[in-house]
Amino acid sequence: MKKIELVNCDKALLELILQGDEALAQQTRWTIPAKWTEFGDFIFEFALKKITENPASQIWWTYLPILVEQNTLVGNCGYKGEPDAEGVVEIGYEVAEDFRGRGLATEIAGMLIDRAFGFKEVTTIRAHTLAEENASVCVLRKHNFKFIEALDDPDDGAIWRWELKKR
Q1: Amino acid 155: pLDDT
Q2: What's the pLDDT at 158?
Q3: Euclidean distance between CA atoms 2 and 55, whole angstroms
Q4: What DSSP string runs through 118-143?
């Protein structure tokens, strides 16, 4: 049984997120833990801009993982845009610190993978992690991602690229 429900963020929900946790909790009736995201407002502002420019792209941006049993927001996840010309889409996810170690990131990543591969144009799913053995690396390995290369990202420093090909 799935513990998580993914809620795709439309313009209204992204605007609500940017109003702050109190407004988000009040309007959604979700429990909002402190530090549910470590990425800050930038990613939500960016997704809002992209969705405003192209409403049809909404499914390729931000999702909120809700722990169904507790009606609690437990992180942030989604895609980093529409599939490119080669059919590659990138996933990203985070789980709030108080909810880590429960298999939620694995479930979230699995849901993002299944959703993306449900589109015929998606041939490959990409992810990046810090260049170290960590929980995200374990999540990707559980889903059969393959290490592709080490990179030096101008913003994040040393990172690893991972990919999963559609079967």
Answers
A1: 86
A2: 96
A3: 29
A4: TSTT--EEEEEEESS--HHHHHHHHT
